[in-house]
Amino acid sequence: MKFLGTVFLGLIVLFYSSEDSSLEQIQTNGELRVAIREGLTTYYEGPHGKAGLEYELAKRFADALGVQLRIQVIDNVDDILHQVATYQVHFAAAGLTVTKPRQAIVRFGPHYQDITQQLIYHRDSKPPPDNLADLTAQLNVIAGSHQIDILNTLKKDYPQLTWKALSSITPSELIQKVWKKEIQYALVNANEMTQIRRFHPELKIGFELPEPNFLAWAFPRSDDNTLYLTAIQFFNQLQQSGDLEQLIERYYGHIDEYEDFDYVNIRAFFRRMKEQLPQYQSYFEKMADHYQLDWRFLAAIGYQESKWNPNAVSGTGVKGLMMLTQSTAEEMGVKNREDPFQSIEGGTKYFVMLKGRIPEEVQEPDKTWFALAAYNVGMGHLRDVRTITEQQGDNPNRWLDIKKHFPKLSEPHWYKQTKYGKARGHEPVQFVKNVRRFYDILAMSDRIRNLENDCLTDKPTDKTADGLC
């Protein structure tokens, strides 16, 4: 998955109108009405409130216009397009794929993300062939989805293709049906599979179609271009500032691509989340409450460090549930590193101290990622890589840029120029990625995998959360 941006400022100069317009009406009324789909790729209630890439983009656009965002959640794509075409909403920010049939109904703004299509199945089901030419089993897709347009085109070259269009179902619910083994194969957007697979690691990808599809906002087909062109300008500014790439990194930068997905590791995490975490959860909660942190974030650090093993010891003598060095333990007042509460208390104090040393110009959530990297590799090496990042013309205050340059700390050409010398630079990048990934699972577990039901034992229940479990 990638992000795309398009420069259209010249068009804005040519076509912007000074007459009464939809944009002026929006600003007068103080409200921007946006259709959106609920799901992990678009809009959902996260641990700290409303979240989702589409929601954040729409919220930023409303803020830029100086108005309130009013979202209207609609799951059916045909209904979304109808709402846009009949001016019931100002536009749709719903993870919509640009297709020719849809372009006859609405007009799309700039592409901001490209995705592919993936054939998915349950790991206990019969694997599909690795190419379309040999596929004879029926696919399942959502009625009215762009996957049907894709399959109709492919059928010209692969006449044996068959599929069933399921009505009144969301993408998450379609994927859930595969997970429950109610259907064998489905064709879905790669970004939706990427998000959901973290919570249902039993899902597998048979193959991926190579042709990319593009996501964009959908606007009414109208002679009034003011809102449409303002949106183009908005995306242009997001791209030029790097904010678009940074937003996409926030939601996808810590998630493994499908070829790197580690089923065994994720299943082990779910097992330990059920069997081991309850022993230490109250400790994490106590420290989190004291320092105004999310206990699940501290638990994610603990898992990445020791798999919640209070007796863990590294080859270099780092020890305990939060894997503290002897010097750090002494600095944090920890007398027994193998005592789980002392270790959690010391690790939390150490993280808070490190975060307090991150420069003020580093904004959240990057400040947290910087502090995590320092927790893993040390503050000195973090300072070194910030210097290298700035020397290379990138932003030393953005994690998106910093993580590109961390591996240089293991290369002689670079670490010989630094103050703190050589480091295994790939490790803090992986450390931050893993903590973010584990935190996501912990933070969403109440909605997606209730630890008291059968989700963790692969037995589907009637409990739903965004159509997942």
> What does the radius of gyration come to?
24 Å
As for the number of domains, it is 3
- The backbone outline, from C-alpha atoms, is globular
Helix content: 40-55%
Uncertain ranges? 1-18, 449-469
Class by alpha and beta content: alpha/beta
Distance between the ends = 25 Å
User: How confident overall, as mean pLDDT?
Assistant: 90
**Alpha plus pi helix count:** 20
The main β sheet shows up as: 3 strands, parallel
Q: Quick one: how many beta strands?
A: 12
Name of the CATH class of the largest domain: Mainly Alpha
The name of the CATH topology of the largest domain is Lysozyme
Measured by DSSP, the beta-strand proportion falls in 5-15%
